[in-house]
């Protein structure tokens, strides 16, 4: 472990630079990095990493290459101009353990603009909260990674291990960004992902499947409605059947470690729907989007087979329903962070030093890029980050003091994990 005096210097350095850290986070939030529009935010991060003397790598995601991997999520958009950015720090002599500091730059749509108290792309700080779409999820964390590293160096110390700063895309829809960084060859002895996790560590999380169900009908004039087949009515039947699978999977939570005590860990979300062509025509089609979740240890293929089988066997009265699912994004499996790793043990110590309390761990029923590292690179993935409110909702915000403490904890982690040398 580094000395108490070195720790003190690092913690002071986080405080000294904290105003500029917040200013950079605000600037990043002002770039609306919605899916396929991450470019300007990535430019900003690229410049910030290059300015720190990191060895820079920026590349466009290649769906062809990615699709050969089992963790690939099918893509419904063009990846032209959609890039990951990675900055690498290499010590003069690589003697310590290596580390990946990962974060995603993409954000989810802001929804009805009028429901926000102010623009989602303003980033004001009010009463200790930094607001804006992506403030918590996860531009505060992405920025914290860089400023934690700064603090170690400002303290006069040089990490003795290799560090990769990853700013990835596609975390909110496929997970292909972190997967692309893995396929690019980036590996390390541990990874930290400062997602908004309420100052806690993620112990386990679900896998996620995205798909669209297309239901076909038979259009007729409503005066002879009985001879038609209403695709929208049939879509309700299909949704009800999917809700039954959801409840069945939830009822099974007792046999999945870390999920036993959750009330409803498996959530199916109907995230979009459209259908029909005319109020006075029985609808010939209906499509709806689904996000489903699966437990760690359940393969995406087996879950998919069960969903397909469910939809294939539906009927309304004597009429079979034609409901065909197509994958549209996430096709990912969940993971468990097995307790007892050196990385977790160290994080417990740095957390306790900064927060003056024990590090709590918990199970989250949402997708995390941690699965890429845990499932495909056998790397301890520490998903650990600040207190937030309303992520994916209106008036998303992140707690400023929580960000400060998380940054301090990550800075101490970097120094102790990689080891440090005093700069001569
Ligand atoms: Zn996130």
Please give a structural write-up.
- It is a single chain.
- This protein is an alpha+beta fold and 424 residues long.
- It has two domains: 4-204 and 334-422, Zn peptidases (Aminopeptidase, 3-Layer(aba) Sandwich), CATH 3.40.630; 207-331, Alpha-Beta Plaits (2-Layer Sandwich).
- The chain has helices spanning 4-16, 18-29, 39-51, 63-66, 135-154, 176-183, 231-251, 300-312, 342-355, 370-376, 400-418; strands spanning 55-60, 83-89, 99-104, 125-126, 129-131, 157-159, 163-168, 191-193, 200-205, 207-216, 269-275, 285-294, 315-316, 319-320, 322-331, 335-336, 361-364, 381-385, 388-389, 397-399, 420-422.
- Strands 1, 2, 3, 7, 8, 9, 16, 17 and 18 form a nine-stranded mixed beta sheet that branches. Strands 4-5-20-19 form a four-stranded antiparallel beta sheet.
- β13 (315-316) and β14 (319-320) form a beta hairpin.
- α1 packs across α5 and α5 (135-154) packs across α11 (400-418).
- It is elongated and about 85 Å long.
- The two termini are 20 Å apart.
- Bound molecules: zinc ion.
- Zinc ion is lined by residues 104, 137-138, 171, 195.
Rg on CA atoms, Å: 23 Å
What is the overall silhouette?
A: elongated
Give every kind of bound small molecule, once each.
Answer: zinc ion
Beta content: 15-25%
Can you count the helices? 11
By secondary-structure content and strand pairing, the structural class works out as alpha+beta
Give me the oligomer status: single chain
Please describe the biggest sheet, giving its number of strands, its sense, and whether it closes into a barrel.
Answer: 9 strands, mixed
* Helix percentage range: 25-40%
The span between the termini is 20 Å
CATH class designation of the largest domain: Alpha Beta
């Amino acid at each position: 472990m580094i000395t108490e005096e070195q720790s003190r210097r690092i913690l002071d350095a986080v405080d000294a630079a904290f105003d500029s850290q917040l200013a950079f986070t605000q600037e990043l939030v002002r770039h609306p990095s919605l899916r396929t529009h991450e470019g300007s935010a990535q430019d900003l991060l690229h410049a910030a990493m290059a300015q720190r003397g990191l060895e820079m790598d920026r590349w466009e995601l290649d769906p062809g290459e990615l699709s050969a991997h089992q963790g690939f999520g099918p893509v419904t958009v063009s990846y032209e101009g959609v890039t990951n950015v990675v900055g690498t720090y290499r010590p003069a002599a690589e003697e310590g353990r290596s580390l990946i500091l990962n974060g995603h730059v993409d954000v989810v749509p802001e929804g009805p603009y009028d429901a926000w108290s102010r623009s989602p792309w303003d980033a004001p700080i009010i009463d200790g909260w930094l607001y804006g779409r992506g403030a918590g999820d996860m531009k505060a964390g992405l920025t914290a990674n860089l400023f934690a590293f700064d603090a170690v160096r400002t303290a006069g110390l040089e990490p003795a291990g290799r560090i990769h700063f990853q700013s990835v895309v596609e975390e909110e829809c496929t997970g292909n960004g972190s997967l692309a960084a893995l396929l690019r060859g980036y590996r390390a002895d541990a990874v930290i992902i400062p997602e908004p996790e309420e100052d806690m560590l993620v112990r386990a999380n679900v896998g996620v499947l995205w798909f669209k169900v297309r239901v076909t009908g038979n259009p007729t004039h409503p005066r002879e409605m009985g001879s038609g087949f209403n695709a929208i009515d049939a879509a309700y039947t299909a949704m009800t059947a999917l809700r039954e699978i959801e409840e069945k999977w939830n009822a099974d939570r007792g046999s999945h470690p870390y999920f036993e005590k959750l009330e409803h860990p498996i959530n199916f979300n109907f995230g979009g729907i459209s259908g029909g062509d005319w109020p006075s025509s029985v609808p010939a089609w209906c499509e709806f989007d689904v996000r489903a979740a699966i437990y760690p240890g359940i393969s995406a293929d087996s879950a998919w087979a069960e969903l397909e089988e469910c939809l294939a066997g539906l009927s309304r009265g004597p009429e079979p329903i034609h409901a065909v699912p197509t994958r549209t994004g996430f096709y990912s499996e969940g993971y468990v962070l097995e307790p007892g790793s050196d990385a977790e043990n160290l994080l417990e110590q740095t957390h306790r030093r900064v927060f003056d309390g024990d590090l709590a761990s918990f199970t989250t029923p949402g997708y995390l890029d941690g699965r890429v590292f845990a499932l495909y690179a056998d790397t301890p993935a520490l998903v650990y980050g600040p207190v937030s409110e309303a992520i994916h909702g209106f008036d998303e915000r992140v707690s400023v003091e929580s960000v400060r403490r998380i940054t301090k904890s990550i800075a101490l982690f970097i120094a102790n994990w990689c080891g440090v040398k005093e700069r001569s």
